[in-house]
Fold:
Amino acid sequence: MKTLLIVYHSMTGGTQQMAYAAAQAARQEPALATRVMHAQAAAAVDVLTADGYLFATPENLAAMSGLMKDFFDRSYYAALERLNGRPYGTLICAGSDGTQAAAQIERIATGWRLRAVAPPLIVCTHAQSSESILGPKKISAEDLARCEELGATLAAGISLGIF
Structure:
């Protein structure tokens, strides 16, 4: 059975909601195992044993979160030259933009020779004050549906061997 690995980090709940929505949709694919792992728990062995990936992170100070970066730091070289051509997608929960966090993940994925199956999905919460940035997030049903669509697309493509 093929596996989709979803690695995420979330401090205020937004990115977790997005990752879980994608996972819920991906789990509808009967010929695919979907694993959701917090970035702190994920390791190179998890990356190496998966057939495709969804990386989900908040945007922190115009970058991916530190724990997501830590996951990549711990996994990158052990997986280098061993993932070529595998599919991936990106979810970003951003306060204002998200493009720099997406670009960081794209650069790492390029080094791993992964293949993007869709543009990064960026959900902008418009959190601009300290209180709103640090406060719990509630992702809209419309944005969660977009996350579900990406999860379902990745799952179907991996399961059918399209990606």
